[in-house]
Amino acid sequence: MRVVQAVRFGEPEVLVPTEAPAPVAGAGHVVIEVSVAAIDFVQTQIRRGFTPGPPLPTPPYVPGASIAGRVRAVGPGTDPAWIGRRVVTHTASGYGGNAELAAAEVEALIPVPDGLGLPEAAALLDDGATALALVETAGIRPHEWVLVAAAAGGVGSLLVQLARVAGARVIGAVGSTPKRELVRDKLGADVVVDYSSPGWPDRVRAATGGRGRGSATWAQPPQQAIRILGRPERDLNVGFIRAGTV
What we know:
The protein is α/β, with parallel strands linked by helices.
């Protein structure tokens, strides 16, 4: 089968298309015909030889942990009804997703409902779980203010929508005009601020009735926001940034 292999740690040029043996479904596992292999920030950092948590693989290796596709084969003792179903999941090893076929544990399979595309399902697998966990942990209440930093990003864009569904009033913080339009017009934030603009803290204070913090819940807050506006009532941090090519 065809795969994309990282022959060593480094920039994108270390990725090389090649051939590899197809996986075989063992007990409790399935083989998925991969339609979409998500590329997230963590995977790009692992490819560069930096790990934010998962252990580093030994090159050469096939990157990719989050995949979506159809089940092609099942292992011994696994319900054959899975064959042909559209699913989204993580690979069994945490790698190997950038391939035509990949193995996954049957217990980790999430059926993709009709009407949802496989690319969208793959995009939701990790960012969606993170956003849901943040919203549940925050205990967002109706009518309170929620400030979402990086509101146009993968997790941030979901947080804006989930906070709105929870009845909160949402301030989306972004860093460019196109992102402001996306967060305001498509995602439904009540207020959008550009934290590359010196006056953005004043807009936050004005929107929250001069409080700036108080009843505000912060998700993914930039440290600049805390320094300027003060510690919020509930402060949730997720993610990291490391300079360099992805």
